[in-house]
Amino acid sequence: MYIASFSLMTVSIGIQTGQTAGAYEVCIAFNVVELIYNILLKLQLSLETLRIHLLHENLIGYVKAFLMIIFLNLWVMKTFLVIIVLSFYCEKLNKAMGEIQNTCVYILRSNSSDAGKELCKNVQRLHRASYTKLNVCGMFYIDASFALRLIAIVGNYALVILQFALQ
């Protein structure tokens, strides 16, 4: 777990500083789209399996479908945990960048040396020019609310699948 957390933090720092940003953005976008697709596909398959085995009153098939739903939920929880960790570290990085800005403002207002003030001005200039939140391929931002937005998207489409399954 610590290795995964460290690697996610390294990825987010590498993305924020512009190092190989395109490769990580495409990888994250692919994983998010794949997650949504797999959740909805497996939900649809589980519902179809349940319906078939309930119509034929097959208890073994019903248990298999129930186990498939349980394993789907375990897989979804694991994948969401990875996304939550990524969101946490990206938000932590965003907060650290905000704290750096606040520290620079404090140093500029204090009686610090000219070299310290010049450094803070350069940091602020660089921050304004090149720092942005992690924006994955222009589709979405990775921040603290990303996991909630992802749950909302999956929930909306799952409701649509459930409505069609009940007809």
Automatic annotation (TrEMBL):
GO terms for cellular component: plasma membrane. InterPro entries: 7TM_chemorcpt. Signal peptide: none annotated. Pfam families: 7tm_7. GO terms for biological process: sensory perception of taste. The keyword Amino-acid biosynthesis does not apply. The chain crosses the membrane at residues 65-89, 146-166. It is found in: Cell membrane. It is a multi-pass membrane protein. This is Gustatory receptor.
